[in-house]
Specification:
The chain has 12 helices and 16 strands. The protein has helices at residues 2-13, 22-35, 51-60, 69-76, 84-94, 104-110, 122-131, 160-172, 191-210, 235-249, 262-265, 299-302, and strands at 17-21, 39-44, 63-66, 95-97, 116-119, 136-140, 176-181, 217-219, 255-258, 269-281, 284-289, 310-311, 317-323, 332-340, 348-351, 372-376.
């Protein structure tokens, strides 16, 4: 159904066409909330920062995980008309800066908003003290990310053994540590990553409280997997495990947060691209299409994503290459798409579940502007009262 509808839209609006369904964004958000009732949902803007997505989620009552001043302002515009106490409450309660390293200029700019920010080392504590001492701090821990599509722990997170020192350091400098966070790696199909991360975090949390540091929250980060293929762990199963572990490990007064990105937006978008050239190279058919790895398929490079392609008509199938429009030989989306071998220039290709880490990292390399965005079921609104 979705594929058939996309064909009509592509004919009407042209290609490449990125079709974003806001009703699916709402549904994904509601599923997340329903299946993890104790967890406050902070949408990770990084996954797709299209303004209308933020608006849809703001209107649903979502909180937000931002990594830069610019992402912060993309959310802030919806609360700029609030009076100061309400604004401050929203920033404190509904936005987290999850980037553990922030440049001093960014810290100085966000100081006035009294933000919640993460850190994972002592130099960052000193920088925060100098540039943004109004902030509440969240210590990010290094946790296992084995088997996740995108690993995180090689770049971020303090060793659990250093946590007590980093918490004490922050308090010694007059700052307040509000809690702990982790990220098990994006598209995490390995349930053990979550259970181990929760166990490590609970141990550090308990120890900090016993030492008299009044930690309040635990942020489980992102990583929640999307059904790109039949092997993906169903979210229902993951949620059941998480709920059991949360209840077992954290007393009721501990606030639980999560920062899903991919889970909220990946399944909300599909892409229609168009074959603009065709050649047989070393025996293999190469379909040259009008979108590529510098554009909507950037996730192939940055997100280790394996794209899916299907055609709108049947034909004798072969393993084909699908490559992008730029003049760069790196711009190969896949060398192994199972597609009809008799597609022609002007035929369309369909790619599903392309909402996350796609347009977000698309460039205009080589003068190609990237896909047009088509919004479905968008309901512009003023946000919650
Ligand atoms: C700090 C942080 N939080 C949340 C996310 C969102 O992760 P995901 O899209 O896997 O849910 C990311 C992205 O990798 C991240 O870096």
């Amino acid at each position: 159904m979705r594929k058939q509808n996309s064909l009509a839209l592509a004919r009407e609006h042209g290609t490449p066409l990125f079709i974003l369904d806001h009703e699916i964004i709402r549904e994904n958000y509601r599923i997340f909330k329903r299946l993890l009732p104790r967890v406050q949902c902070y949408y990770a803007v990084k996954a797709n920062s299209i303004q209308e997505i933020i608006e849809t989620l703001f209107n649903e009552g979502s909180s937000f995980d931002v990594a830069s001043y610019s992402e912060f302002m993309q959310v802030y515009r919806y609360i700029s008309h609030f009076d100061t106490p309400r604004q401050e409450h929203f920033v404190w309660d509904n936005i987290i800066f999850s980037n553990t390293i922030k440049d001093a200029a960014t810290l100085e700019r966000i100081k006035q908003y009294k933000p919640l920010i993460t850190y994972d080392n002592e130099d960052e504590i000193k920088k925060i003290k100098r540039a943004c001492d109004t902030a509440g701090l969240v210590l990010r821990l290094k946790v296992p990310d084995i088997g996740s599509q995108v690993e995180m722990s090689s770049k971020f997170g303090a060793e659990p053994a250093d946590a007590a020192r980093l918490i004490r350091d922050a308090f010694d400098q007059g700052l307040t540590v509000e809690g702990l966070s982790f990220h098990v790696g994006s598209q995490c199909g390995n349930l053990d990553n979550y259970t181990k991360a929760l166990a490590v975090t609970a141990a550090v949390f308990r120890d900090a409280r016993q030492k008299g540091f009044p930690l309040k929250l635990v942020d489980m980060g992102g990583g929640f997997p999307v059904p790109y293929d039949a092997q993906t762990v169903p979210f229902e199963r993951l949620a059941e495990t998480l709920n059991t572990e949360i209840e077992r490990l954290f007393p009721e007064d501990v606030e639980l947060l999560a920062e899903p990105g991919r889970f909220i937006v990946a399944t909300a978008a599909c892409l229609v691209s168009e074959i603009i050239g065709k050649a047989r190279r070393n025996g293999k058919i190469f379909y040259h299409i009008n979108d590529g790895v510098y554009h909507t398929f950037s996730g192939v490079v940055f997100d280790h994503w394996i794209p899916n392609f299907s055609a709108y008509r049947e034909g004798p199938r072969e393993i084909c290459a699908v490559v992008g429009p730029t003049c760069d030989s790196f711009d190969k989306i896949t060398l192994a798409a199972d597609l009809p071998a008799d597609l022609e220039i002007g035929d369309f290709l369909f790619t599903d579940n392309i909402g996350a880490y796609s347009t977000a990292s698309s460039t205009t390399f080589n003068g190609f502007p990237g896909a047009k965005i088509h919004h479905k079921n968008l309901k512009p609104g003023a946000g919650p009262a």
